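Let us practice reading a record.
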Amino acid sequence: MKIHFAQLDKTKVSFEIEIPSEEVAKERNEVYNYLKDNAKVSGFRPGKTPQQVLEKQFEGTVRKEVIERLLPKYFQIALKEKNVTPLTLPEFSDIKLENGPLSFKATVEVRPDIELGKYKKIRLEKLGAQISDEDVENKLKELQLQAATLTEVKDRDEVMAGDFAIIDFRGLLNGKPMKGLSRQNYFIPASDEETKGDAVSNTLARGIVGMKKGTEKEIEVELQNRQENVPGEPEARKALFKVTLKDIKKRILPEINDEFAGIFGFKNINELKDKIREELEKLWEQKEKRRLIDEMTEKIIKKTSVELSSNLIERQRDYLLYKLNNELAGRKIPREQYMQTNNLTEEVLRQQYTQAAAKQLKAKLIFSEISKRENIKVEEEDLKSEIERIAESAKKKPEEVRMYLERRDMLDNLREDILEQKVVDFLFSNAEVKEKGKIWAAVKRVFGKK
């Protein structure tokens, strides 16, 4: 086997490979032997078709099969021989196969040179948990809403702010139904104020105030961005929703007292408040740790020199967009609705995902380099523990999860995820984390006493 290796640029290499005639002939004979035993040829029994007949009838098929078998096999041999780790699938070209050797060219993106900067003792400033009495009260109100009961409004037939309405609606744009914006028996709170929902929910919530049971109303909704596939001027951004009010309900809230605490399994309201504060502090700590890890990663990326090709970034961006589309499809959210809700255009979305792709790739390469320097590895026990965690979450047996991953060639992906997490844990454990205002808070406690 002959290999000519060339570095095209900092992130791309090429191989010119020639596979010897004898190896090609051996592979070709294996294909013909398979065809001789299995191919159905008119006038001949299986296993009795002459070689020259097979060659005449299946020459093109055999040539294609030989190429598909040999190219990836010998490309992998070339990678090992030149000690090259690809980041992308190869692009094959200049494939030549007649009666002699098989030659081809393969180009592939490779890991760029990485000049690691400082990655230990990264200085981080942690914010202490700041859970106020108001936070606890707000959580109590959320629990109060969960424990609330709904009852039908019988003394009036008109919707008031604070009521809950059951409606049917369908959205029209330029007179045509909008995909995904049609519901029956839809439960919606009526409000005379702006809420946290999207443009459609907000407008409908305000628009139904004053409606009477059994009536229909047309409510105009201003969409939040102009889609490229929507023709016309700004008028085309206005959707018309036809709404029918079917029923009105009002919420009955329980009083917040010891009896209320008993609904959630606590002896009294003070015990419930203490538990709420404890849970809020845990959530704060988890959120703060994620923020610190993101900040740490940003600092390490800034201190490290790594050059990525635009092609590699674009591929990662397209992969992230593919995952987004799958997620939206799983949640049955039309892409157009997602774009409207988040006030996005295709151009802005692609820009955001291009930046995210570059950041992800840099972090991945940097973490990989650090794992080599610090000899951080994924042991079989690490893999076993993660599979058990996934199995418990999915309510499956660990062997079922492992079999699923193996069948889909996903074990290596899981190993990469585990390795990345181990590197992050290593870096965070070696960071210098100080709590903001801790010294000043101690001074105030000492000298603030009267």
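A brief commentary: The longest helix spans residues 269-302.
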